[in-house]
Amino acid sequence: MLPILASTIVINICLAQLRTFSVQQGNAMNLKLGSFRVPASSIPVIPLIFLCTLIPIYVLFFVPFIRKITHHPLGVTQLQRVGVGLVLSAISMTIVGFIEVKRRDQGRKDPSKPISLFWLSFQYAIFGIADMFTLVGLLEFFYREAPSTMKSLHSHLCPCHLVTS
């Protein structure tokens, strides 16, 4: 089980980047939404919003749909979910690179008109989906694969991947 937990280092790196660099990046962007000024430090709430809205959609619609295709009781295996989450976190970091290039180029072209802070929402949205797949997959994997005498310990390993970042 520890190699599975160790594989989540990828998502931990992405999470650390989103908590630090993206907020710092946001401070150099246009923080206005109409007449309201949005603090850059509030943008990390986007993955949480996606988690809260997508988990019910995932459980109610995606799992039954994919279950019909795969004939697997869970739709996909727990490790496939973790894998999808890790791939999506890499995609999220690719988007980070593209947005940073766009931000930098706009800053060089016209420093008085920075791009909007909400360009960062793309990377946060993809990361929210990645986090959903990874967390759900890890929770189910640790709970289902752990011996009955160690279920509590193993199900508590899942949040450890969040603490390490």
From TrEMBL:
The record's family statement is: Belongs to the major facilitator superfamily. Proton-dependent oligopeptide transporter (POT/PTR) (TC 2.A.17) family.
MF annotations from Gene Ontology: transmembrane transporter activity
The reply to whether Transmembrane figures as a keyword in the UniProt entry is yes
Lineage, top-rank taxon, reads: Eukaryota
Which organism encodes this protein?
A: Medicago truncatula (Barrel medic)
Lineage of the species this protein comes from: Eukaryota, Viridiplantae, Streptophyta, Embryophyta, Tracheophyta
Membrane topology note: Multi-pass membrane protein
Q: Transmembrane ranges?
A: 40-61, 82-101, 121-143
Q: What name has this protein been given in UniProt?
A: Peptide/nitrate transporter
